[in-house]
């Protein structure tokens, strides 16, 4: 009778382990999807910010170009248009960020770095572990209890 009971308990334990594994897999999939959605939203906000900034900077660039060109012609001083060169570079960069391929080129470069320069991505003192976090937590809680006394 004990053999039948232990066999039944083993089967229940195995089903419970499978259930727990299935649940942890579902939880991880949900976390990955949530993190990806957050990343997509952040990227969308960055692109939207670039487009909004471009509107203001474009207007500034247009007014500045008009003013400097008019001043250079009226005063016959061509060097007055010199600030348009660096401002032009900034404008082109913003257009590329807002509507161009900058994001795709950045992604390609990031993939290249991850593939061939992995050591650049290592964290100082390595990845945090449960033990290192727990040690820090304990030192802070003991420090707090000392300060309270």
UniProtKB/TrEMBL annotation:
Q: Where are the transmembrane segments?
A: 53-73, 79-104
Keyword Ligase attributed: no
Q: Which GO terms describe its cellular component?
A: plasma membrane
Task: Report keywords, A-Z.
Answer: Membrane, Transmembrane, Transmembrane helix
Provide an example Pfam family for this protein: DUF2368
For this entry, the protein name equals: Plasminogen receptor, C-terminal lysine transmembrane protein
Q: Which organism is it from?
A: Tetraodon nigroviridis (Spotted green pufferfish)
Q: Kindly state a single biological-process term from the GO annotations of this entry.
A: positive regulation of plasminogen activation
